[in-house]
Design brief:
The protein contains eight helices and eight strands. By secondary structure, it is of the alpha/beta class. Strand 5 and strand 6 form a beta hairpin. It starts with a strand and ends with a helix.
Length: 209
């Protein structure tokens, strides 16, 4: 089962990608993580991406697509995968359609005021990138990552003034994807306002439908 997760920042995409990955026993492929991996392991695309990240520039589409292609060719994707953070644009979606068959696209929908309150509580591990929330997904020890013991911080991105700008960019860039996959009959809209277990059940039901 090849799945794409869509949702605005703060919709719970990362959390549900992790849960769905455990439920379906297929890997989650998050763009941020695999770009970091490709940089570290020095793959062909990783080396190309390095030129941009070192200059503080956004990695261009064709390189991101190349990194995704390298990652999807690995054996652990044999029975499927969950994409988190890719595609972000129509050209990326079209490139993905040429690589693999997408089965389901899960769009986690959450009202903007709820997103604002969720993101202000978000904390992220400076070492491994795991995310927590001071209200809904507390670490075992306050301010410390459960996975690696490093410090949790609030990203600049999660401060209210930047959240609003991020939501605007998200809507402009990614909402065309919603229409793109709706036309293909693959889109499942999930109400992400409920608690995590309820949303998880709704996602599983949509995937298995
Ligand atoms: Zn950590």
């Amino acid at each position: 089962m090849n799945i794409i997760l869509l949702g605005a920042p703060g919709a719970g995409k990362g959390t549900h990608a992790e849960l769905l990955s455990k439920d379906l026993k297929i890997p989650t492929i998050s763009t941020g993580n695999i770009i970091r991996e490709a940089l570290k392991s020095g793959t062909e695309m990783g080396l190309k991406a390095k030129v941009y990240t070192e200059a503080g520039k956004l990695v261009p589409d064709e390189i991101v697509i190349g990194i995704i292609r390298e990652r999807l060719a690995k054996s652990d994707c044999g029975s499927g995968f969950i994409l988190d953070g890719f595609p972000r644009t129509i050209p990326q979606a079209e490139a993905l359609d040429k690589m693999v068959k997408v089965d389901k696209v899960i769009d986690i929908v959450v009202p903007e005021d709820l997103i604002m309150s969720r993101l202000s509580g978000r904390r992220v591990c400076i070492q491994c990138g795991a995310t927590y929330n001071v209200k809904t997904k507390k670490p075992k020890v306050e301010g410390i990552c459960d996975h690696c013991g490093s410090t949790l911080v609030q990203r600049k991105d999660d401060k209210p003034e930047t959240v609003k700008a991020r939501l605007r960019v998200y809507h402009e860039q990614t909402e065309p994807l919603v229409d793109y996959y709706k036309k293909q009959g693959k889109l499942c809209e999930i109400n992400g306002s409920n608690n995590i277990p309820q949303t998880e059940r709704d996602i599983i039901n949509a995937v298995e439908a």
